[in-house]
Amino acid sequence: MPVAPRAHRFLAHYPDLMKLHFLGAAGTVTGSKYLIEDADTRVLVDCGLFQGYKNLRKRNWAPFPVDPSSIDAVVVTHAHLDHTGYLPLLVKKGFSGPIYATAPTKALAGILLPDSGRIQEEDAEYANKKGFSKHSPAMPLYTEADAVASLKQFEAVDLHTDTRAAGSVSFRYLRAGHILGAAIVRMQLSRGSSLSFSGDLGRSDDPVMPRPEGALETDYLVCESTYGNRPHDPEDVRTRLKEIITTTADREGIVLIPAFAVGRSQTVLAIIHSLMEKGEIPNLPVYLNSPMAVSTTDLYLRFPHDHLLGPEEMREIERDIHLVRSVEESKELNYLKGPGVIVSASGMLTGGRVLHHLAAMAPNPNNTLVLVGYQAGGTRGRRILDGETKVKVHGQWVPINCQVEDIGGLSAHADADEIVRWLATFEHAPLTTFLTHGEPDSSEALRVRIEHDLGWNVETPVLGEVAHLD
Ligand SMILES: [Zn+2]
C-alpha cells in the first residue's frame, strides 16, 4: 500500500496549516485533551483529568496551555473522567462555549462530574482532618458546585448527524462501544480534510456494549492504544468469576471487586446475577456500593438502544442486588461477615468508597480482591497487581494479605488484534495515524504492528507535541 508523505514536511510553505495539539493522553492513558486549531476556530476534543502517577496528577494543577476563553467548543467522546474530568476546571477558568456529547454521555456526565468534585472535596477535607497532606490546607481541584455549573454547557447530539462545532469545524458521532454513549468522532475541517478520533474503542464481542463502527473514511486518525502491546486473555470471564466466588465463599470470605461505576459494574453484576439465577454459585448477598454505579444502572433503563441488555434483565438486577446508598450503610459493609460480594468504585482503587473496603478487607487472607479493568501505572490497583505487599490508603499502610485475582477479559477496551481489525475496515489508509492513550511500550508496539500489517504511516506523539495537518 503506498504511504503518503507526512503532511508537516511542508510546514515551511504553508505557515497557516491546521494544527493538532496533543495536550494529554500522550505517552500515558489519562488526561485526554486534543486542541484543533483551524483558521480562527479552536475546538477541544475531550477534556480529561490526568490520573495515576503523582507527577501526572500534578499536571491537573498546571495552567491550561491556551486561554480557555479562546476555545470555541468542546467535543466529548465519552463520559469517563479521564476524558471529561477537567471540564469543570476549564469552565471555571473561562471557557463559555458548548460542550457536545451524545445524550447518554451527557446524562452520565451529570452523574460523574459532580461526584468527581465531591470526591475531591472529601479527599481534601479528609487530608486536612488527618493532617497527612503536604499542602496546608489541602484544596480540591474543583468542587461539586463547579461541576454542576459546567453541566449547563452540555448539548446532546445524535449519532450519525453532521453538527457544526464552531466556525469551520463540523463533526459526526459514530458508535465506539466501550461504555454507554461512547462515540468515535469524525471531524470535517475547513480545507475539506477530515480528522477522526477513535476515543476509547470497545470490544468486538462485549456482552453488554455494541461493537465499534468501522469503515471510516478519514485523512488523519487519532487512535487509542491502551492494549497496544498485548491481547486480552481469551479466558471465559464467567467461569473465572464462578471459580473465584465459589472458593472465596468456601473460606467464608468476601469478594471485593473494584469496578468503574460506569460499564464494568453493570457487566460484573449482570454476570454474577446470571450465575446465581442458574445456581452456579451459592446464593450470597451482593452489594453495589457506589451511588454513581446505582444511578448509572438507571440510565441503562433510560437508554435501552445504546446497550445489549434487555429491560427485563436490568430490572431483575436492580431487584436482586443490594444497592447501597447512604454513607452509614457503606461503613457497615466494612464489618460484613462472609460470604458475600461487594462491587464498588473506583476501578483502579484511586478513590471512592472502595478504599475503605480495601483497608478493611485486604489484611484478611480469606478475602479476594478481583481487579477487572485496566490498571494504569501508579495507581494502587497496578501496584497490587505488580505484587506489592502493602499500599497506602488515606495515609495508612494497608497489608495486602488477601488473594488477588485479575480478570483481563472484562476490559472495556479493544486489544491490539481488535484495533488492527477495526483499522483494516477503513476505506483507505489515513495520511497519518497518531497513536495516543497508551503507555509508551503499548503505543510503540502498536505502531510497529500497524506499519507492518497495514503499511500505514504511524506516529506516537509526545505530550505537548503539535502536528500540522494539510
Ligand atoms: Zn474510557
Explain the layout of strands and helices:
Blueprint: E1 18-22, E2 33-38, E3 41-47, H1 54-57, E4 73-75, H2 81-84, H3 87-92, E5 99-101, H4 103-130, H5 144-151, E6 154-156, E7 163-166, E8 169-175, E9 183-188, E10 194-197, E11 220-224, H6 237-250, E12 254-258, H7 264-277, E13 286-289, H8 291-302, H9 311-320, E14 322-323, H10 327-332, E15 340-344, H11 354-361, E16 368-371, H12 380-385, E17 390-393, E18 396-399, E19 403-406, H13 416-423, E20 432-436, H14 440-454, E21 458-459, E22 466-469
Parallel strand pairs: 3-4, 4-5, 5-6, 10-11, 11-20, 12-15, 12-16, 13-14, 13-15, 16-19, 20-21
Antiparallel strand pairs: 1-2, 1-22, 2-3, 7-8, 8-9, 9-10, 17-18
What do you see in this structure?
- This protein is globular.
- Helices cover 30% and strands 20% of the residues.
- It has helices at residues 54-57, 81-84, 87-92, 103-130, 144-151, 237-250, 264-277, 291-302, 311-320, 327-332, 354-361, 380-385, 416-423, 440-454; strands at 18-22, 33-38, 41-47, 73-75, 99-101, 154-156, 163-166, 169-175, 183-188, 194-197, 220-224, 254-258, 286-289, 322-323, 340-344, 368-371, 390-393, 396-399, 403-406, 432-436, 458-459, 466-469.
- The strands form four sheets. The protein has a seven-stranded mixed β-sheet with strand order 6-5-4-3-2-1-22. Strands 7-8-9-10-11-20-21 form a seven-stranded mixed β-sheet, with helices on one face.
- The site of zinc ion has 4 residues, from loops.
